[in-house]
Fold these 2 entries.
Entry 1:
Amino acid sequence: MNDKFRFLVVDDNKIDQLVTRQLLKIKLGVTEVNQAGNGVEALEWIKVNSEVPDAREVIILLDIKMPEMDGFGFLEAFEELDGKLKDTIKIIMVSSTLDPIDIERAECHKQVKKLLTKPLPITELADYLASL
Amino acid sequence: MPRSYLNTFNKLTQRHVISFVLFVFLCSSILIVTNYYTLKTVSAVRAYINGESQYSKGEKEAARNLIMYINTEEPEYWNKFQQALQVPLSDSIVRVELTKNGDVAVIKRALIAGQSHEEDLEGMIWLFHTFNKVSFMKNAINTWQEADILIGLKRQLGDRVHQLISKQEMTEEQRKEIIASINANTTELTLKEKDFSGNLGTAARAINTYLFYFNFLMTIIIIGIASTYAISMIKKLKNQNEILMNTNNELDKFVYSASHDLRAPITSLKGLIEIAKEETDPEIIQQYLYLMKESLNKQDEFIREIIDFSRNKRKEIVRQPVNLSKTIDQVIRHHCYMPNANNINITKDILLETIPSDPLRIEIILNNLISNAIKYSDEKKERMTIHIKTYLENHSAIMEIADNGVGIKKENLSSIFQMFYVTQNSNKGTGLGLYIVQETVAKLQGSILVESELHKGTKFTLQIPLLL
């Protein structure tokens, strides 16, 4: 896992960040988990890290409800990024939402590879990563 | 929310319906009254014209019989002459009596003798009295008077003829002269009669034309107002419908947001349990337990806020003396288990102790504001403070809650009272607290003011009118 993927957890909830980080660590042995508190911070992270060459794919675990820039705001800004850069990044939405509009928006978005419900279903994520 | 929209809508509609109905009623009344009087006038005018034709007939018949009498000297014609002349003579009495406002019974009798129809009598009397100063009627009356003088002349001629014939003294020359006089008199009378009818006929036609235009105008006004009203009502309905749909959408959003916020702590808890199962270090497990409690506290707080929200919405205002000092102490005690609560120096300056207000709502407001002041305290400050002050100003209770906490960014200040709005450092907030404060303050018809500077602190100033 560590040599194939880099993880970025975008979530404003400190507890959920901790849970995701720990689950990735315990179940998948991922040691490097990056964190962003909202969409703006996530974009910042992408900008900074795209300058450093790295062969690994980036997996973004994106929450929907966040202050300043929410998950959909981030997706909109993400679309504006360079095509090559986008190819190295896979976005998975992780949310506890029950709002059918949010769910449909997430499922229909072409940049969203998967929609998972909190708490992070780690085996489902592992299966998906294995299929890549 | 939808209920209050509907209430204002109904009030508005009711007021509009009443004024609209009143207006249509007024227009219709004017229309009916005008038509009634106009038709009354026109029918009386027609009755006078009809009277004139009887007058004319009588006068001409009298002239014819008088000439016959002169030529044949048969007393039968003398009788017929007198009889025929009765019609214009009666009319003459009518005019004189009407002019001096005489006895109605006398006038009516004279009118019937003048061959007017019984049903027309009232109208004719009314027309004379109402319009005798108006030009068309005034002219007609003058002509009538002139004609009556000629009738008097005709009668004198008759008397002279009768005298001469009775005494068998009439010469051929006299005969010719008198017949010429009779003919001249008749010709002159005919002119007067034409004049009279012409005057009244013109007036009747003019009145008819005006009535037509008036009816046309009133009908247009009524139709115009009715259509304007209908259009405005349709527009209003559309607007209200839109507002209702928006409210519905808002309600949907509220339900999803609320359910998300209710679920979020549960999913956090489930996650914590998941990672705790794999953890062996008791110290870290202790940490997880602490986080679990934090999650549950947050959910608890959210549920309490939802209940406050609905209580404020549904419950009527209860007027009671509220002891501000006691309420504040109680609220502070309530929050003593919050992180940092015991490290904050809370001072009070109670210049207004008890106010007549709604205890539940005052508690909801103070609870939220004091809880925020504790929640957003700034740990970096050497001495964390909250200062609460109450005083009276212009029949209102003023309450200030000032802290030296983390403060609010300028660009966020305008949004903090919005539903579900949370700021960056808000793992702590539900986005409901200040919304509820604002709604509750509004219910008490008060106002709330916020001043804040990032990293310096925040001050909320409440103005609550006393419920006297």
Entry 2:
Amino acid sequence: MFITQLVQQVIGGISIGAIYCLLALGFSLMSRAINVIHFAQGDFFMLGGFASITFYLILKLPFWLSIILSTLCVSCVGIAFERIAYKPLWKSHHVFILMSTAATSIVLSNSAVLIWGPDAWRFPRIFSDQVLNLSGILIPVEMLWISISAVVIMILFNAFLQKTKLGKGFRAAAQDREMAQGMGVNLKLADSFVFGASAGLGAVGGVLVAPILFVTPYMGLIYTIKGFTAAVLGGMGSIRGAILGGFLLGIMENLSAAFISSTYKDAIVFVLLLLLLLFKPSGLLLKPTVEKV
Amino acid sequence: MKRSKFLVVACCIFILGLWGNAIPADPIKVGMALPMTGPGSMMGRDMRDGATLAADKFNASGGLNGQKIEIIVMDEKNQPTTALNVAKKLIYQDKVFCLGTNYSPPSIAVIPLTKETETPHFISGVAQKILEMDNPWIFRSTPSDKVLAGQYVNFAMKNLNLKKLAILNESTDYGKGGRNDLIDEMKEYNTQPLIVESYNLGDKDFAAQLNKIKNAGPDGLFIWGLYVEGAQIMRQAKQLGLNMPILASSGVLQGAFFELAGKDAEGMYLETYFFAKNSAPQVQAFVKEYTEKFKYEPQPGAGIAYDAMTMLINGLKKVGAPDKYKVMKEIRASRFNGVIGRQECDNVGQCGRSAIILQVKNGAPGVVWSSD
């Protein structure tokens, strides 16, 4: 009985964890490439949800097309903000870019209120209503769809970075800008890619999750915090770390709620994070790096 | 030359004086600190529109000897600190005659202010705690949660014969208050809840709590929170196979709950004080006027504000002037059948007395129990 409960909670954690992975990936990407923690990451997630509502519900396009269009549109918004809000602050102190991302978050969430209203929107059911029953353990089919889709997207994205010329170029730019430029990598394109991809990953998460959650304009903040926590857990800047962190966060949340206290589940997770950072500040998967002066 | 100049000035002053009297007196301002954005924003809209309907009717019939009611709405995002700031602005800057607040947590934050500034204050939040804060200026058209929770437990144990009850509550003053009221009433039956879990306002995933509850094996589940989380909980409860009767509090039946929950609401119980299909004549008249004016059907929040404004307006009419001490006395003496049930104010400002329990069958809610 206890084992069944444990497994059920872990499976629930993996389901929600897949979403956290997508967010964490966006964070890690940003952090690795341009050393910025993007406070508006969760708001791109929210925009992805609303974009898919607009394309699917309002414009009545097929769902697969809505996913693609939503991701593209939100990626463009991400690139636009890079040009307007972050690029001009490039030469100044780090902190200003950070503040700018916080401002972006405010702009995005309030724009969402102006465009779609302050209330929750319901996305029609896309995935099947069915729930699989494996000897007492219940797995909603839609959670399966979402988790698998998220994992597939992450694998494809990783393959792009590792195997394609363009992807390798972007990774080079993330490691050493001057050298990469010297080798012919287009830095402007690389920067746009980072922002576009982060926003896009966030958006894809939002689109996948819209059919199972209610999309509200202020949901960005919670997901920014979750994505950030997951990225830090696995190691900020590491792609694999983001994926591990995402799933681990989902599982930790569910187990804390189930076996310790549901009221304090968020607090427990943060305490665990603090403890982890005390002993392994670079996160679980990264080796501690020393900043060269 | 001097004399004619003096005459001109005197005439001007005389004319201005006449003109001054012809300008209608300052409007009677009613400030409303409502959640227009954030979690629970639909109830903010409902309360604003319900109050506006009452005020517009009053103004159209001439107001208080020509003095009209002006409603000023400000957004407090359902956050106690924002609500306090907004209330201060409305009271100190806009000098409102009466203040209105919505949910319990922001209302509780504002009560000390209206007590200190002696401002008439109507509240929709149902937490019992509100009545224990010793403010002689408050009046509440919604029934107390203590009464709502009590009647719900009676219904669950006597009408539905449930014995092992679980509670899932929001971690705010509203949710905790409701949980405490439920537990208190269960003590009357010499029992206690089988399992109690909670969640935070704004949470999106309830699988952990629901699985825990399911494992404990209750035969009924109370949900005490607001509508967005309520809809999501119903959805996940159905998925995770929680098939026992689910009884949701009045906070769940607000805004677009039925739209959000869809067929996941089937079979659930909801407690409220306002039901649009209620055949009582004042309810039907209200629903008709509201739908014509705002082009959508009224929700409980609209009825709450409408009855509160009715009490204020009746008080103003009885006294004949915006004298807050006399008007408050009249408000606290209110006795009438409002849109959300019987209104009879007691000495702590609790006016609302009625409760209705609905059940959703074949997609539509129907009354299964009523206190009147």
